[in-house]
Write a structure and sequence with these properties.
- The complex is a heterodimer of chains A (224) and B (318).
- In chain A, a hairpin with a 5-residue loop joins strand 1 and strand 2.
- Chain A has two domains: 143 residues, no CATH class; 52 residues, no CATH class.
- Chain A contains eleven helices and four strands.
- Chain A has 224 residues and is mainly alpha-helical.
- By secondary structure, chain B is mainly α.
- The chains are: A mainly alpha (224), B mainly alpha (318).
- At the A-B interface, helix 2, helix 4, helix 5, helix 7 and helix 8 of A face helix 2, helix 3, helix 9 and helix 12 of B.
Chain lengths: 224, 318
């Protein structure tokens, strides 16, 4: 399929699709993380004020751990997501779709410095724009990917209606399209639904809501 | 089979797997067999054209299981110890040509600058500002090293500073190496010049000579090695980009990064040890200078013999 998604085939013959995340959403995640980092430094600086020289040590150690360690620890222990990435809905995976380990995460985060050069992540941006999976240099070196996390959807109940047989056989894909329409019914405006009913006249032989109701019955016939 | 029937038939399985994936259920040894059945469910659901929300739900469940089953790496006990015992010194010896270049860039330039400054002191001003040189000179006045820091708590503060500053330089040197190795080399040369000029400048004055050398001689064994290691690994990465050999550039970068990873970890570790020595040992004025020189000799010998002899025996690298 030509949809920019990356498809991985597992040993069981199942195809998993991943959607690589682009520069904009990653910049947003980075902005959140950086804001948090600066905020944490300020809080730490405030606390450290009360401890004199020991406070200085606390401050510098915190700066080191939060600057170099925070993204690595988050990615290894929290399913490839820093707080910023979680908020932006993206995560880091190995190129084979498995969770990142210490080595991958460390390499990609150390090379963030190289991606920054010469200024403002220009190298990273160019690399992302040239790569078909939006990988920055650190991702290429460590063989990782940043992808959109799957949103946990709840399965909606299927429509309740008097089941009707289909007037002529439909392919699985066509059946799926029909079922999908009624699963998304709540998010569509009534006018648009009626319009779709009219478009489906060839299938139902009716227009507007009447056609829609008939399709509902077909779907009930398909699933029940 | 209709979708409703299908869902009813397999609902128990899906619920079971959901519980395992979310950590509620602990019957993880059942997961492989459950997973195979789940994959079959997904294949059937896609092929029969069941609703997209159902197939998406199954696909997400499959993905979670896939990560759990295949993502668990083989247990690698003592991987850090294996790296230190074997991989780090071996990799460094394998790259001896590059190490030679880094050593010349650092020690050669450093010693040259030192000798130049020693020979014609006014040359120091062409490398560093007069303010910086004066500050260095003040820093190493007898007595100011420890008193100026504020006792053992000051040592702790400096320990934090050395870690933040030096380990960060180490990491930046490595990452900068990606650009054909040039920034890594420049970083090494720059640090070499700095070291040479400061050492030459402070050796000129007998008062600072007596404080400077005992201060730096011990921890430099670890710190300079750490810097050279990070320069080495950074340049290796850059060379993979210039001369990838029979691999594609991406692949060459990946391979080199995997091979050099123990070296980067080693560089960070060495710099960390150096920070410890620099903060708590080098600045300790109650230790006589002779003892410091003896300890320094032991440290330098240990570091050199580690890279010369460690990991000569034993099996292949992991």
């Amino acid at each position: 399929m030509l949809d920019g998604r990356l498809s991985l085939t597992t040993p069981e013959g199942i195809r998993l699709s991943l959607t690589p995340a682009g520069p904009a959403v990653r910049a947003w995640a980075w902005a959140i993380d950086t804001a948090l980092w600066v905020g944490s430094l300020m809080v730490m600086g405030f606390i450290a004020n009360f401890f004199g020289k020991v406070g200085q040590w606390m401050m510098l150690t915190w700066a080191f751990v939060s600057y170099w360690g925070y993204p690595i620890i988050c990615e290894v222990y929290f399913k490839g997501r820093t707080i910023g990435k979680r908020a932006a809905g993206i995560e880091v995976l190995r190129a084979d779709g498995l969770p990142v380990g210490w080595r991958e995460s460390t390499l990609r985060n150390l090379l963030l410095v190289a991606d920054f050069l010469p200024a403002l992540y220009i190298t990273g941006l160019i690399s992302m724009l040239y790569d078909n999976q939006f990988r920055r240099v650190g991702d290429v070196v460590a063989r990782t990917l940043v992808v959109y996390s799957d949103k946990a959807q709840t399965r909606t109940a299927l429509p309740k209606a008097e089941p009707l047989p289909l007037p002529f056989p439909l392919t699985p894909d066509q059946q799926r399209t029909l079922v999908d329409l009624f699963e998304r019914e709540r998010s569509l405006p009534p006018g648009r639904l009626a319009e779709l009913g009219t478009i489906a006249e060839g299938l139902t032989g009716a227009c507007d809501t009447e056609s829609l109701e008939r399709m509902r019955s077909y779907v009930a016939g398909l699933v029940q | 089979m209709k979708q409703k029937q299908f869902e009813a038939e397999h609902a128990d399985l899906w619920r079971e797997i959901d519980a395992i994936v979310n950590g509620v259920s602990l019957e993880t040894e059942q997961l492989p067999s459950y997973y195979r059945r789940l994959c079959q469910c997904l294949a059937l659901a896609s092929q029969r054209g069941y609703s997209p929300t159902l197939t998406d739900y199954l696909r997400r469940l499959v993905f979670e299981c896939h990560r759990r089953l295949y993502g668990t790496s083989v247990a690698r006990p003592m991987v850090l110890r294996a790296w230190l015992n074997r991989d780090l010194p071996r990799r460094v010896r394998e790259e001896w040509r590059l190490l030679l270049l880094v050593a010349v860039a650092f020690w050669g330039v450093g010693i040259l600058c030192g000798v130049l400054v020693w020979w014609k002191p006014q040359l120091a001003y062409s490398f560093m500002g007069s303010g910086d040189l004066a500050r260095m000179h003040d820093m190493y006045q007898p007595g100011s090293i420890h008193v100026g820091r504020g006792g053992s708590q000051g040592d702790l503060a400096m320990f934090g500073f050395y870690i933040w500053n030096n380990v960060s330089i180490c990491f930046r040197t490595f990452a900068g190496g990606l650009f054909a190795g040039i920034p890594a080399l420049l970083s090494v040369v720059y640090n070499g010049i700095n070291m040479g000029v400061v050492a030459g400048w402070l050796s000129l004055d007998p008062t600072t000579r007596g404080t400077f050398w005992p201060f730096v001689v011990t921890h430099s064994s670890f710190e300079l090695t750490g810097l050279m290691l990070s320069g080495l690994s950074g340049m290796r990465l850059g060379l993979a980009l210039i001369k990838p050999g029979r691999l594609s550039r991406r692949h060459a970068l990946y391979e080199v990064a995997q091979r050099m990873f123990p070296v980067i970890v080693g560089a960070a570790l060495f710099t960390f040890i150096a920070a410890f020595f620099e903060a708590f040992w080098s600045a300790n004025t109650s230790v006589p200078d002779n003892v410091k020189y003896i300890v320094a000799a032991i440290c330098w010998t240990a570091v050199l013999s580690y890279f010369l002899f460690a990991g000569r025996k034993g099996g292949d690298a992991a």
